[in-house]
Amino acid sequence: MTHVILVVEDNERNLKLLRDVLEYAGYDVRVARTAEDGITLAVKEPPDLVLMDLQLPGIDGMEALRRLRENPRTVDIPVVAVTAQAMKQDRERALDAGFNGYIEKPISVRAFPDQVRGFLSAGAEGTE
Amino acid sequence: MVERDKRKPADQDPAVNAEMAAEIELLVHELAEVREQLSATSEVLAVIGRSASDLGRVLETVVESARRLCGADAGQVLLVDGDRYRLAYGSGMTAEYREHIANKPVVLDRETLAGRIGLDRRTMQIPDVLADPDYGRTDAQRVAGFRTVMGVPMLLDGDVVGVLSVWRTEVEPFSDRAVGVLTAFAAQAALAVRTVDLVRTLESRTEELGRKVTQLEALGAVGQAESFSLNLTEVLNTIITQAVQLSGTDGGSIYEFDEDAREFRISTVFGTSPETFDALRRSRIGLEDTFLGKAATLGSPLELPDLRDALPDPYLSVLDQGGWRSLVAVPMLREGRIVGAMVVRRHAPGHFPQEVRDLLQTFAGQSALALINAKLYRQLERQSAALEVASQHKSEFLASMSHELRTPLNAIIGFSEVLLERMFGQLNERQDDYLRDIWSSGKHLLELLNDILDLSKIEAGQMVLNRSEFSVRESLEYCLSMVRERALQQRILLSLEVDPEVGLLDADRLRFRQVVLNLLSNAVKFTPDGGRVDVRAFMRGQDLVVLVADTGVGVPAEDRERIFDSFQQGTRHSEQTEGTGLGLTLSKRILELHGGRIWVESEAGNGSTFGFALPTGSGEPASTSVPQADLESGLPTESAPGPGPTVVVVEDDRRSFDLLRVYLEGAGARVVSARDGKEGLDTVRRLNPAGVVLDILLPGVDGWEVLAQLKADPKTAAIPVIVVSMLDERGRGFALGAAEYLVKPVGKEQLLAALYRAAAMPERKHTVVAIDDDPLAIELVRASLESEGWTVLGAATGQEGLTLIRERQPSAVLLDLLMSGMDGFEVLEALRADPDTKSVPVVILTSKSMTQQDKERLQGRITYVARKTEFDLSGLAGLLRWASTSRQPPASESG
């Protein structure tokens, strides 16, 4: 079965890049440009993995994660931060907040599908 | 008059005359006695006045005078000591009696005269002790042989503190007059006892205060906000309370002087109503228009015996309304500057004795110290708050800039990778080529961005080295593998040669690789196809040296220095795609953090060799670089290692170490830290420092062991060791060979004095000659430097300045360029022409903008140029300290 990945990203070009790379790797990709839209989508049809930008218009990635974790329908979905925040403390803060992973932009197109695969299988282990 | 009276009636009726003559005779005799008594009393009073604190002298005078005036064979003062008496002073008695009475003292009971006086608190006489059935000390009587004894109590506030007594060895009772004499003297003796008590209390209180202030000093330097301010209030309160009580006045206050507003602000009061305190707080007590200001300007205590006689001023009228009538104002001065004032007041008018004024001056000195510390502390607090805000702004800016740049880079690099991966079909050769250009330009931008972040981390002092031991060879091989692909493409031959003695290195492994990789990729980048890049590693003394040699275009001479400076690039590769960017700057900083250095040797067209050296082991820098100029102010940063004597501080407590470091660096020393005994021993052996500051309680090998080992080793035995410890075991310290032993908390002056005594550091002269025809400018300089311990000698003309410099040999010169008559350039020329003055560091402080011609005239002759308008005077002391320790002139300019 094809894994469904939800990408929450407000920058149009980066959204396009992530979608192209993931679709090329064979995933079913859903997109949202705000955290609110992302949460609505995730609740309606829970994906296998959420890739979340941290700086978003409206509510930010941190808050979105908190809301996903509060909802029983989305509580177990692995959520990975994909962000251009590159300071060491940003990574620590995100992992402390409960993100399952942290991928720094710019992404490596070659390595990205493998990273995603890693989070999917870790999430699968966690839920079973 | 008496003489005349005596003769006149004698010429009249003989009978009357005879009677009168006898009476007169008696009167005359009596008068003489009274006179003698008076003179003796005044002698006693004079002695008390002169030597109030010398109880022995006072009692001696009292007893000797009493014995003489009473016509007694012996006299003594016995002081109450618990339930018995102690002989405080005796006259006319044998050594045998003294010994007897010392072994078997007189007790406060009815057996003796003194005992009865002590119990009944009144004057008594026993006409004949042998006839007194109750007399119990016949043992003492047999030794001394007294028969008639008389004594008076020494009373203080109704309590008997002692007995003044006299005796005769014949039975001959003392007259009433003798009783009077003795009573008067006993009162004096009692007063003397009280004075001595007071002086002793005062001394111990003063000592206690001194200790508190010293503690405070140490505390202030560490910076403990809350406890510090609490302690300041407490100290000032204690001071004013003691000052009022010991001076016998009714109330008092301490004022802090605000230099900017030129007014006094009340800090604390004692014995003063809340209303008056409030009124004092609300009124402006100016320097120019109040009594307090007058005393401060005068620089010595000023008394006002009656407020109502004085010209009213805002300050005095507040006190007048508060019911105060007289006061003494004592200015608190520090190095000639007004810090504050202390005032004690009385509700009644009257003068204040000299002792009171002396006493107040002591207290004022203590308060001045406390206030200055508080002020310094507040300044420090403000500065660090401002710094923190600035540095936070900078960090926020960098973080957001990094984010903003990374977002488009993600698209640039990502999409070119997508296409290069042929995700959406094949590319022709040109498309592939262009995409690679886009991709590598994106990567290059990303590298620059990362370098900028790294550099700003270093600038902000936030880069922490993650040290570990690793193999130099393995790291070098790893770096070579990273550039091998590109070298192959360019047919560049790579070689690596590592000397066998090169082993492990204790450094930050990733940063070490970053440096090597940077040098290697530069070398490959700038070497034409078919060339070669050779890497060599070897030991030079204690240093690891790595050389990266290429056969590239080389670095022109004019670029060799600035190639390591931020945002500067050589011109050698202008036609090529990428520059070295920030890589070399970053490498230089990383190496400096490790205590190493970097250099380049090159001939244009003949390739270049970049090399770096790193001290091996856990060592601190052996770097000799001049302090780096701070980006904003152009001032050298204070923490930069000075070229002064090296002092190793073995101390495991971070805070104690920071404090010691501040003290030592302030005096120009280069401080190297060792956190435990073993590291201490290693560091001292490796660096052979000018001195060691050693804590005793250390983890692992303790300070005693370190001291013993250093002294046992002929190589280190001569290095003076100053022990600074909580333990007060001086004996043991000195026995083991410590040069000095200080018990914590240790103040700056104490520590430096110990180092100077132990000859671990040369004592520095802190004199600066400021030459400026604007007296205000000199005053400004004086104001900012004197508080930092400098002596500022001002000169209004160049000629005057030259004379001063030759006479006083200052540690630095501050020079204005534009002056009427002899200008700054001429002064400089005269200074440099004279062998005696040619090496004195000169800092130009001028409002003139430098022309190119000016700069050439100054070239190599000055240490530093600062513009008056932009110059922050608070940094002047730091600049001068740096200038006076660095004799090489790296002419640089701020602004």
List the helices and strands and how they pair.
The complex is a heterodimer of chains A (128) and B (895).
Chain A: E1 4-8, H1 12-24, E2 28-32, H2 35-44, E3 49-52, H3 61-70, E4 79-83, H4 88-97, E5 101-104, H5 112-127
Parallel strand pairs in A: 1-2, 1-3, 3-4, 4-5
Chain B: H1 2-7, H2 14-50, H3 55-70, E1 74-81, E2 84-91, H4 95-103, H5 113-120, E3 124-126, H6 138-144, E4 148-156, E5 159-168, H7 176-222, H8 225-246, E6 251-258, E7 263-270, H9 274-282, E8 285-286, H10 291-298, E9 302-304, H11 314-321, E10 326-334, E11 337-346, H12 354-420, H13 429-459, E12 467-471, H14 472-489, E13 493-498, E14 504-508, H15 509-526, E15 532-540, E16 543-550, H16 583-593, E17 597-602, E18 608-615, E19 646-650, H17 654-666, E20 670-674, H18 677-687, E21 691-694, H19 703-712, E22 721-725, H20 730-736, E23 740-743, H21 748-757, E24 767-771, H22 775-786, E25 791-795, H23 798-808, E26 812-815, H24 824-833, E27 842-846, H25 852-858, E28 864-867, H26 876-885
Parallel strand pairs in B: 13-15, 19-20, 19-21, 21-22, 22-23, 24-25, 24-26, 26-27, 27-28
Antiparallel strand pairs in B: 1-2, 1-5, 3-4, 4-5, 6-7, 6-11, 7-8, 9-10, 10-11, 12-14, 15-16, 16-18, 17-18
Provide structural commentary.
The complex is a heterodimer of chains A (128) and B (895). Chain A is of the alpha/beta class. Chain A is built from 5 helices and 5 strands, in the order E-H-E-H-E-H-E-H-E-H. Chain A has a 5-stranded parallel beta sheet, sandwiched between helices. In chain A, helix 1 links the parallel strand 1 and strand 2. Chain A is globular and about 30 Å long. Chain A starts with a strand and ends with a helix. The mean pLDDT of chain A is 89. In chain B, 47% of the residues lie in helices and 19% in strands. The longest helix of chain B has 67 residues. At the A-B interface, helix 1 of A face helix 12 and helix 13 of B.
